[in-house]
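Students often ask what a holo structure prediction actually looks like on paper. The answer is less mysterious than it sounds. You provide the chain, you provide the ligand, and the output is a string of discrete structure tokens encoding the 3D arrangement of the protein together with magnesium ion.
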Amino acid sequence: MEYELLANNYVNWEKTWPFLTEAVQETLTMVSETLVVGGILGLLLGITLWSLRKGSILQNTVLYQILNFVINFIRPIPFIIFLTAVQPITIAVVGTSIGTTAATFPMIVFCTVATARLVEQALITVPSGVIEAATAMGASKLRIIFDVLLSETLAPLILSYAFLFVAVIDMSAMAGTIGGGGLGNYAIVYGYQKFNITITWVCVGIIIVIVQIAQLLANFFAKKVLSR
Amino acid sequence: MSSQLDNARSENHEVLIRFDDVSKVFGDVNAVDGISFSILQGEIFGIIGRSGAGKSTLVRLINALEKLSGGEIYVDDVKITSKTRSSDLKQLRTNIGMIFQSFNLFGSRTVFKNVEYPLKLAGVDKAQRRTRVLELLDFVGLAEKADVYPSKLSGGQKQRVGIARALATNPKILLADEATSALDPETTLDILKLLKKVNVEFKTTIVVITHTMSVVKLICDKVAVMNDGKVVEIGETSKVFENPQHEVTKNFISTLRTLESGKL
Ligand SMILES: Nc1ncnc2c1ncn2[C@@H]1O[C@H](COP(=O)(O)OP(=O)(O)OP(=O)(O)O)[C@@H](O)[C@H]1O
Ligand SMILES: [Mg+2]
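The corresponding structure tokens follow.
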């Protein structure tokens, strides 16, 4: 009874709509910024990790172990805890600990680390013999990275980025809870905290649509690349 | 340094690859242990030995896929020492093709693009690349497979692509590390014939690593037998067969005889 009194499934769409579109925009901004910056940094870090591995082109076990440790240290931290734990650093870097910009910083860090690992895992599937064949032809290290490594793993890399996209949306929702804005924040504040299940599910629906579009695009391109 | 090189060449004009007290250590393993011998221009040179004898390591020193621990190797007019940096070796590597047991083709590239890649690295322009690739695919009998991806090819076809790719820049030397070990007997013969054809038509010097004496017998002019990082026997194939000296050689030959006789 009490729940029914509190629960308010009525939505004034005219009032809600501007907030909702703003939330969607915030989410897309956070997610795309994170994916672009974290995705590129992660790609570079992933390539670096691959290069430093034993028997690889820049073999350096000590450096590899250090990077490996840092990544293994950060990765298992639940993102919502990571967010709060790095707040002092966030303030130092972006000057504030609330809002979408502040939320983007820890997202980028987390995304970089996750990307690096995914990229490394994709790259190690390239048989060392194929790298060796290119080396024997006189290919430079840079050539090997671009012409062999990345082009041989393009399809799994595309799928990894699709996976990351979903993970980053997930992160953005959590970032929302500490005032990061976006759909996560909106769903919590206007859906959960105001007992408006409709709003919550509208947010869920929008996220599902965004994720589906991304996944379909990724599958399409990966398939195109893989048609061999 | 260069006078030494001139000496090396004036001694014998036909020497193409010369190992001079070459060694390679991995930790405490002497994979190659003070080897000296020469390979002449135009030869098909076999290297046989048991697993772990150091064959691959020796051959990988020729194109500097492995760094020398000691000694020197003269390849054509290039001298390789333990101080040679692999970044200085582009020219040398363009002059040496290599084929592998596992083919090592680029799975993301078509047959055409696999063969084209070394030409791209060598800076050949597009029109010339196309002509050369088609010529090579024709040579190895795969003209109609130009636009196919390697995963759609049989082992023998893959190795043909490997050969075409290795020959793209018209190298003087072709290194074949167990190039037929993954193939069935019939396909092995096809590939060996093709290697012979490469040797005859392009005068390519071929270094063939193998586990089986029949490969040596079929195509090698000379053979070196390796054991424990050392060359224990070397000579013309027919002479080595007639009069094997080392126990390892004798074993390889008697294995071959047993196989040929069909009786255990
Ligand atoms: N990268 C490496 N690191 C450490 N040891 C190595 C390495 N490469 C080769 N070795 C060692 O050097 C020795 C010679 O190896 P190599 O691969 O040259 O033998 P092989 O004659 O080619 O054998 P196979 O017939 O099995 O191919 C072996 O003991 C091997 O374990
Ligand atoms: Mg070997």
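Residues 2-86+207-261 of chain B form a domain with the Rossmann fold fold (CATH 3.40.50.300).
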